[in-house]
């Protein structure tokens, strides 16, 4: 994955690397707030994906795996505290991936898109609910679809 994004502009490369972090905060904050447990679980998920992601996308997760909790906390501090405004800002940033998907090899773009969608679902499942019931609330079900992203072909 890192080889494929090396041909992109620097700001596009940074957005690709930042995308899982943006998705983490977007989904974790869909219930109104992002707590430290969600940050910790997302960091563990990124660590796991760095080794077990099926495609070259694992190299992206490996790249962001170091200090991921600190990166998430820093990013969270830069975002609005109001949940609606935060979600809007994150969605706008993630929307910036659409023109990047077109520039990537089509299979890498599809793999990256699917990985982000899968990652969003996993983040949503890490919090909420009682005894595994209603783990993903209605709004999270919509957010995990990452509607701001166009599925690459």
List keywords for this structure.
153 residues, 9 helices
Walk me through this protein's architecture.
It is a single chain. The longest helix has 20 residues, at 106-125. The chain has 153 residues and is an all-alpha fold. 68% of the residues lie in helices and 0% in strands. It has one domain. The model is unreliable at 129-133 (pLDDT under 50).
Short structural summary:
This protein has 153 residues and is mainly α. It has 9 helices and no strands. Helices cover 68% and strands 0% of the residues.
Largest sheet: none
Count of individual domains? 1
Helix content: 55-70%
Unreliable spans are 129-133
Global shape: globular
Percentage of β-strand residues:
under 5%
Number of DSSP helical runs:
9
Radius of gyration: 15 Å
- Alpha-beta classification: mainly alpha
Average pLDDT confidence is 88
Secondary-structure element series: HHHHHHHHH
């Amino acid at each position: 994955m890192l080889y494929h994004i090396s041909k992109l502009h620097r700001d596009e490369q940074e957005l690709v690397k930042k995308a899982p972090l943006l998705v983490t905060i977007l989904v974790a904050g869909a219930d109104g707030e992002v707590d430290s447990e969600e940050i910790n679980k997302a960091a563990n998920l990124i660590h796991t994906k760095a080794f077990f992601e099926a495609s070259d996308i694992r190299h992206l997760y490996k790249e962001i795996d170091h200090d991921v909790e600190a990166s998430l906390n820093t990013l969270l501090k830069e975002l609005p505290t109001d949940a609606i405004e935060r979600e809007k800002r994150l969605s706008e940033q993630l929307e910036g991936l659409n023109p990047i998907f077109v520039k990537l090899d089509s299979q890498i773009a599809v793999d990256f898109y699917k990985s982000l969608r899968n990652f969003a679902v996993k983040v949503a499942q890490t919090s909420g609910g009682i005894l595994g019931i209603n783990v993903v609330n209605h709004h999270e079900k919509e957010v995990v679809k990452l509607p701001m992203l166009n599925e690459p072909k």
